[in-house]
Recover the amino acids of this structure.
């Protein structure tokens, strides 16, 4: 049976998403992707989702997790649903169709459907790859 401390999970999904560096550690166990996210600066995934090509610019993955430190704001664009703030010490469920924002340093552990999370992370990797290509071409 697999087990690990969150900080010992492989960086960037074991190399699948290198742009996340050590800010996102994850591994696929069965049908779940177990992920540990750490942010040290504010992050707004709105543009990452849009540029990465996610339909509607929103994340297709439902997230189940626990916030150790900091807070996550889940925004549901064009739905009329109110924003939700998940704070340190809280467990959560964030349904698909959201954008995540981090306004402070945050550490959280998630259990996600692997296929849905892979779509989200692949989009973020595409965004990072496009930015790197653009930076290379402009020099």
């Amino acid at each position: 049976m697999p087990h690990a401390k969150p900080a010992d999970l492989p960086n960037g999904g074991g190399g699948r998403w290198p742009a996340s560096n050590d800010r996102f550690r994850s591994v696929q166990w069965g049908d779940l992707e177990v992920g540990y996210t750490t942010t040290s600066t504010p992050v707004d995934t709105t543009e990452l989702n849009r540029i990465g090509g996610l339909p509607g610019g929103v994340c297709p993955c439902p997230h189940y997790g626990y916030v150790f430190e900091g807070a996550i704001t889940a925004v549901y664009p064009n739905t009329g649903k109110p924003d939700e703030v998940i704070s340190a010490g809280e467990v959560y469920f964030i349904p698909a169709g959201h954008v995540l924002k981090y306004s402070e340093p945050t550490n959280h552990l998630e259990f996600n459907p692997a296929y849905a999370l892979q779509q989200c992370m692949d989009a973020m990797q595409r965004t990072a790859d496009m930015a790197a290509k653009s930076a290379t071409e402009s020099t």
